[in-house]
């Protein structure tokens, strides 16, 4: 995997779940200028448009929530494949940047950049584990072929 490369191509493998083992529920109230809650009460957040999109920025936004979800999910997949291969990934991190902008169909699209840090592994091995995690991660499987996902190993 090369730095800055878009790694997603059209997925020809069926990555849909064969069994649902957990369902998360959240409700939006007021769209991008309201609040979001989860059915279990763990999430109760004010949502606001960021200044770059014309808002006041006095709250989180869907892109931040997506970045938090994707980075934590990808990091867990990375730890899983690392552990399966016999590696301790203590000290590793995954940071996500989620961009939003207009697309060619007068709607909006997303792009993701994942920055992965595996300080205790050599770059070749780290790249193999990152590639494996990208196949395991549900967010990667859900976005593959739909949005540009760039993975930067550093």
Please write out the topology:
Blueprint: E1 26-29, E2 34-38, E3 44-47, H1 62-84, E4 93-102, E5 108-117, H2 123-136, H3 138-143, E6 148-153
Parallel strand pairs: 5-6
Antiparallel strand pairs: 1-2, 2-3, 4-5
Helix pairs in contact: 1-2
Give your account of this protein's structure.
The longest helix has 23 residues, at 62-84. A hairpin with a 4-residue loop joins strand 1 (26-29) and strand 2. The protein has helices at residues 62-84, 123-136, 138-143; strands at 26-29, 34-38, 44-47, 93-102, 108-117, 148-153. With 154 residues, the chain is of the alpha+beta class. Strands 1-2-3 form a 3-stranded antiparallel β-sheet, with no helix packed on it. A 3-stranded mixed β-sheet has the order 4-5-6, with helices on one face.
The number of helical segments is 3
How big a fraction of the residues is strand?
25-35%
Q: How many angstroms separate the termini?
A: 12 Å
Please estimate the helix content: 25-40%
Class by helix and strand content? alpha+beta
Q: Could you spell the SSE succession in H and E letters?
A: EEEHEEHHE
Largest sheet: 3 strands, antiparallel
Strand order of the largest sheet: 1-2-3
- How does the overall form come out from the CA principal axes? globular
What is the strand tally?
6
